[in-house]
């Protein structure tokens, strides 16, 4: 016999519903089978009744006696500790069922399980300094008399200034002394010649700045020959009076103006000097007259010291 599952409370909705749990389907029978127990059983037959569902005004189906407001099992809302923001969630360390799986791969048992690390609840609070900033007290290091401090400061500054000035003076003096001429150069800068030791008509050779200097004490014949020359015919025109400050004394550098050889005195075609290197001839005034020499013999700076009877060259 089929087992009666439930009887619809509203008779106008249709016949009772019978359920065969063994076969897994539902079927209905005529209500008369329940009331006429004494009468002979009629032959079973199939009937089609109106549906057991109703329709709402918006068109959605409505099942009588069936509730769809089912709720899944869940933790209580208070378990999450929403009221305490520093407390961890109650389900923070739980692992859901779907996070674990078991399967056989290639004949081997493979098990996967997810693990959630624990939530850190550690808190660190940096200490704050609420005391106001304070300036150290230096009153113990200060002198009671400010005038004494000023005097000492002025004395120290003045002393250091004097020492610095002395050092700077010595440094500048040494630097300027190094730029000046040395003692041997100064000694050769000027040369004194005693004119009393040079007789008339003779020559004297003096070394000055590494070069020979000819000093000739001329006689009247030498002076007349030098003045009788027509300077317009000279390659380097120059009067005898322009070359000799005093007619009787002729001072010249003993270096040939051609290539720097030293001429020989009282020689040559003009009674003056002759260069043996390339044959240049000079007259009694030291002017170039013949040969490759282009210029006259050079006349250096000189002066006379009449009190001592000396010639100062340089």
TrEMBL record:
Q: Note down the stretches annotated as region Disordered.
A: 36-58, 118-144
Q: State the coiled-coil residue ranges.
A: none
Per UniProt, subcellular location reads as: Membrane
Q: Which GO terms describe its molecular function?
A: 2 iron, 2 sulfur cluster binding; metal ion binding; quinol-cytochrome-c reductase activity
Which stretches are tagged as biased composition: Low complexity? 36-53
Question: What are the GO cellular component annotations?
Answer: membrane
The record ties this protein, via Gene3D superfamilies, to: Rieske [2Fe-2S] iron-sulphur domain (2.102.10.10), Ubiquinol cytochrome reductase, transmembrane domain (1.20.5.270)
- Protein name, as recorded: Cytochrome b-c1 complex subunit Rieske, mitochondrial
**Keyword terms, alphabetized:** 2Fe-2S, Disulfide bond, Iron, Iron-sulfur, Membrane, Metal-binding, Transmembrane, Transmembrane helix
